[in-house]
Amino acid sequence: WQNALLLLAEMDACxxxxxxxxxxxxxxxxxxxxxxxxxLQLLAAMQxxxxxxxxxxxxxxxxxxxxxxxxxEALRLLxxxxxxxxxxxxxxxxxxxxxxxxxxxxxEAxxxxxxxxxxAFVPDVIAVNASISACAEx
Length: 138
Fold this sequence. Notes:
By secondary structure, this protein is an all-alpha fold. It has eight helices and no strands. The protein is elongated, with a radius of gyration of 16 Å.
């Protein structure tokens, strides 16, 4: 993730604007390294440049938020993506439910599980186990 950010800085210094793929890769790299703040900053930069992040990039950012127990940020990302007309997938809900569970926010986890079903998804083992875990910690 650090090398990716260094390359972005070098591109900027050379007057080169990163394209969609470059920014997506950097967001995913930061998210994989659990650098949630950097991932969200890059996600915002993508949007500032007029790019609409794809679901895997958003999912990775939500997972990074989950690992850092940043459940409010995870839910903000979920809401924003839907506001942009993107359809959250079961992977998006799983990451969001997990974020709530890790932060012991059982009401939000159960609400997301219900929302998942309201959108005609069948909850998988990840969604159910994360919701149960959230309730068990309450």
